[in-house]
């Protein structure tokens, strides 16, 4: 069954400063990597087509406009004044649903470090999350003013390059502290709770990310994270929205797409590099995921860029 998450959002005016800060550095459509490595800024002047991508552990914020994410069969919508926490790397379909030249989508993504979260949680001596709090791989919460202020400070810091190496780590630590202490806290704490299913699936996802080109047996991966095969499959699908094999397939196809687009590797070579033994199977599965064969898809992406 499809569902939709629409938490109460803060007034758009509450994010005006953040939108203005993002617009200062993202003046035309695009995705902007910044001098603060975990931080990227995003601007779109109109709604976009659905895009297959991998969401990393991180915090996404829309300061202006609206976005929608499809995780499995769950539809997740969020907009100004809301924050989206992705607690585990996930293959999703994402697109902008509301934006215009006069009021473009303005947003940011701040990737987070799992080890840093674990250390901060230990330092804060937080109580473990209640057993009744279900783990959600993607959670949407209303931005509170202190967290919003930290994000504004982080973006505005880009205008002071000499201070970035000193101040950016401090502001990021403060953001993690506020996330752990705020509404997103229970989801982050699930990741650091020893022996929790979410932590075990996170380990499996990490293995898949590092070894996606290798042949993989689901039963062996389940054993690696100390789960029975049936329990592993159940928790993996519940958390990621897909099966382990489908997850690996999407990792392979996403990586092949990047190799062809950014390193101009041909389709046959890319298929081998990501672990396919059959070029025809690679082409078929690529077309199913991205809507067109490899060469045609990459040509379209280059023209669009």
Structural summary, described in words:
This protein is α+β, with helices and mostly antiparallel strands. It has two domains: 4-190, Sandwich (Jelly Rolls); 194-305, Arc Repressor Mutant, subunit A, CATH 1.10.10. Helix content is 46%, strand content 20%. It has twelve helices and eleven strands. The chain has helices at residues 16-25, 114-124, 145-156, 164-181, 185-192, 197-210, 218-224, 229-240, 244-262, 267-273, 279-290, 294-304; strands spanning 4-5, 30-33, 39-44, 51-55, 58-64, 66-71, 74-78, 82-86, 90-98, 105-111, 138-142. The strands form two sheets. The protein has a six-stranded antiparallel sheet, covered by helices on one side. A hairpin with a 5-residue loop joins β2 and β3. α1 (16-25) runs parallel beside α3, α2 (114-124) packs across α4 (164-181) and α9 crosses α10 (267-273). The longest helix is centred in the C-terminal third of the chain and has 19 residues, at 244-262. It is globular, with a radius of gyration of 20 Å. The model is unreliable at 1-11 (pLDDT under 50).
